[in-house]
TrEMBL record:
The keyword Translocase does not apply. One of its GO terms (molecular function) is carbon-sulfur lyase activity. The modification N6-(pyridoxal phosphate)lysine is found at residue 251. Coiled coil: none annotated. This is Methionine gamma-lyase. It comes from the Eukaryota. Keywords: Pyridoxal phosphate. It comes from Turnera subulata.
Amino acid sequence: MAETKNPQGLVFAGKKRAGQDEFDGNDDFIVTKKAMVPPSSVWEDPAAALAAARHEFGEHGGVNMSIEASAMFTVMEPETMRRMFSGELGPDRDFFIYSRHFNPTVLNLGRQMAALEGTEAGYCTASGMSAISSVILQLCGSGGHVVASRILYGGTHALLTHFLPRACNINTTFVDIGDLEAVKNSIVEGKTKLLYFESISNPTLTVANIPELSRIAHEKGVTVVVDNTFAPMVLSPAKLGADVVVHSITKFISGGGDIIAGAVCGPASLVNSMMDLQQGALMLLGPTMNAKVAFELSERIPHLGLRMKEHCRRAMAYATNMKKLGLKVIYPGLEDHPQHELLKSMANKDYGFGGLICIDMETEEKANRLMHHLQNCSQFGFMAVSLGYYETLMSCSGSSTSSEMDPEERAVAGISPGLIRMSVGYLGTLSQKWSQFEKAFSKMQESGGLFYKN
């Protein structure tokens, strides 16, 4: 295979090819309803950007795009295939080779994700972890160094702590992301390739100072990668200085708890390099998204803003009321949260402070007792991992999503053994769900120290 030049098909609106594959020396090709170019490239906020993004119509004029459920694509002339593999013809002009490379339906979802995050390009993957690992491997080769927040999703922490040093000779220094001086001192000029952190950390809900962290990294020539899974619509890291934004689409963006997916959003040069035939991490590792999955997700993104506003509105109401009950509540929307003012200064207007709450019950036994009553006595929510579902989901982080970290690492990260991470849903009325919480809390108090007593 010849090395592709990777034309920037992730950035520009495509043009449907004419009856013949060959170009006639100019760009006056037939432009169908599929190729509607946004009237403005000015990024205002996530909702405005999504509304301005190219809308992909169906093959026969349907208001929804067609699903291109094909692994490979035909050409009309033999010479066209050579030109496609050489990089002369690409997805920017509606020329496709193979769905591990580019698929029209997946490509459209990538455009939506780029609009959502305000980046030049986006590429969607089979999972959030595949997006994270592919970005790190593209930016950091053998012998490279990463500076990362010491508070991360357990899978990401395990990737950086165990897998990458063993398999790729990539080592990580973990720091308190709130200590800007420590971050600066951890960067080794000429060796550190990227600074990695979560916009709102999993599970402690620590808010990163994205503008300052980006400034520090850029002064030393380091790329900033931000996981924005906890805060789609709420925060726009690329507009605050970050270079690359990654997502587990599985969570809030999907919203249905039924799809595993991820995304990489960033400069066209990076995304295209990740699709290089000889050196691209996405191309060669192959975390390909299925076109049918991409179609389903594309239909959910238009109402993401409405869902996020309700997740956040209810989280604020619950956090306020839980605090009144005497519970130790962690939520960035509360004024006593250490980064409350920071988040206010960075957040997109009208989207709130996030859809997750933490309740610190101090011990795992107390945390389990409260969750038992919330699920089994009052139907307030479900004991399950993940987040962004329309029902409230609860888990004790130390023994579940952060279990990859050892007890000492969890203690350093501030993850209490009794920390409940609660993803606030929006099903039912607010008064109905709060009544269910109060019922469960009352039953727990009545049961005293007796585990699982009804």
